[in-house]
Write a structure and sequence with these properties.
alpha+beta
Length: about 625
Amino acid sequence: MYAEVDDTAGTFSIHSERVSDGMVRMAGAPHRMVDFGPEAVAMLRSGRPLVVSDVSTHALTRDHRAAYSSIDVQANLAIPLVKSGRLTIVLSLADDKPRTWTDDEIATATETAERTWAAVEQSRAQQAMEDSERAFRLMANAVPQIIWVTDSEGNNLFFNQQWHEYIGHPPEPTAAGVAGRFIHPDDAELTMQRFSEALRLGTTFSVEHRLRRVDGVYRWFLVRAEPERSPETGEIIRWYGSSTDIGALKEAEQALRDADRRKDEFLATLAHELRNPLAPVANAIAILRAPQADDTMRFRMLSLMERQMRHLVRLVDDLLEVSRITRGKITLQLQQLDLRTIAQASVEAAANEVQQTSLDVNLRLPAQPVWVHADPARMKQVVDNLLNNALKYTPAGGAIELEVGRRGDAGILQVQDNGVGIPPSMLGAVFELFTQVNQTLGRSNGGLGIGLALVRQLVTLHGGVVTAASEGAGKGSTFTVQLPLSRAAESDAQRDPARGELRPARQRRRVLVVDDNFDAADTIAAAIELAGHDVAVAYDAQTGLAAADRLKPECILLDLGMPGMDGHQVARALRSHPEHQDCLIVALTGWGQANDRELTRQSGFDAHLVKPASVEAVMELLDAGVRSAGAGTV
C-alpha cells in the first residue's frame, strides 16, 4: 500500500492499496502513526526501512501488535521517503502471516518507492502547472485590458479574449507582425525600438501607441510588460504584458490643452476688449475739460461715452451671465412673447453700429405674431448676440438679414450674413465657450468668444435649439434659433426693451441718494433732478441716516458696499423707525444674483438695481410711487 504522511499531525492516509482476500482495507480516514509503535515511526523518520518478520516478536512492534492484528498484518516491510527532513511517503508491503523479507524484496521495494515518489511529484507538478495556466487564463480574460505573453525573441505565446474582441482578427505569430499590421504606422517603429531596448537592458517595456480597432478606428493604448527570467541562468525567457486603452484619457488631455489655449486667448482678448472703449472715453474726458469745446462737441463726446459705457456693461453682463448659467443660478421669467417684437427691438438698438459699418440690415417679419413662451430679456440677449456676431464678421457694404417665422410647431429666428463664413472644421465648435472662429481678424472685431456660447445656453434653457451653417470661408453664415410655439391667441403688449430718453417726472418726489462713490452719487442725483425731482446726496451711511430723519424722503437710493455701516444695516435701521415705513428703499449694487436679491429683500429693500443702473429704471421706480404703490424688484 502507498501512504502519504502528514508528519506535523503525526498521521498517514492510504491513497493506494492492494490487499488479499480477507485482509482489512485501510484506505479512507487518516490513521495515527503512534498506534503502530513510536520506535517504529522514529525509524521511518530517520529514513531507514522498517523490516518486521513478525510483529508479535519484533522489539519495535510487539507492544503494539493489537494495532497490527486489527488490520490482519503479521509481517511488514515499510520503505520511507524523507524529503527536506520530513517523512512524506511510506510504501508498505504486509503479510497476514509471519515471514522473512529477503534482500531482493527490500531492494525492490525501495526502488519502487523512489519511482512512485518521482511519478507522484511529476503528476503533481503537471497538475499544478495546468491549474496555474487555467487560473492565469481566467484572470487574463477577466480584466478589461489586453493581456499578452511573448518569448524572449518576440514570438507571441498568448493573447486574452479582449484582444480578439478589440482587434477582431487572430494575432500575428510575432510582435513585429502585430506592429506591422495592427499598430498605427506612425507608432510601429517606436514600439519595436522600445521593445528591443527593453530586451537588451532587461528593463520594463513601456510605450504608448495607437492600436487599430475592428472597425478601423485607432485608439491610444498604454503598453507595459515585465520580463520573466530563468532561475538558473537569469536570462529573459518570457514577457508578460498588458495594453490599456487610454483613448478617453488622451481626449481629456487634449480637451484640457484646448481649454487652456482658449483661456489664454480669452484673457488676451478680454484685456484688449476692455481697453478698447476706454481709449475714446479718456479722449472724450480730455475734450470735455477743454474750455474751447462748444456744446455740439460736448454733446458728441457725451454720446460717445454713453456708447462705450454700454459696450463695457454688455461685456461684463455677458461674462456674469455665462457664469450664472454654467452654475445653474439663472431663473427665467417666462411669459407670452412675440418674436417679432424682440427682433425689431434688437435691430433698432443696433442702428448706430449698422450705420457706422455701412451694412445693409434687412428685417423680415411675418404679418402674424409668432408667439413663444420665453423670457423677454433673455431672448433679446440671444438676438442681440446673433446680430452683433453678424455685424462683426460682415465686411463693410455687406448684407445681413434677420428673419422671423414659423416652421411646423417651432418659432424660427434666423440671422444670415454674407460675411467671412465659418470653416467646416469649426462648425461644431462655434458655440463652445471662448472659441474664436477666425483668428485672422483683428482683435477689435474678434470678440471674447462668449456670445455664441451664451446664445446656446439661453436657447437650451428655453427648450429650443440653435444651429450654425456655412458653406465655408468667405461664403457667409446662417444662425437659426428654433423655439416651441406658444398657442396663446393673445399676449400682453411687451415693453420695448430698448433704452429711452430721459423724460419729465409724472409727479415730483423727495429723493435721497446714499453712495460713497462720489461720481456715481452725483451723476444719478443730477439725472433725477433734471427729471424734476427734489434730490439730496449723502456720501456715507451716518450722514445718510441723518439726512433721512431730517428730509423724510419718499425714496432712498442706497448703495450696499459702503465702508463701516453697509447698505443692509442702513436699510434695517431705516425700517426700524415708523416715519420710514412707507419710504421706497432701492438697493444700488454690483451684485445681482438671486441670493443677493433675497438678502436685500430680507433687509427691507423694495427694489434691487444692478450697477450701472439705467436712469430709465430709476425713473420708472419713482413714477410708480412710494412703497404702498407696490414697487417691485428690478
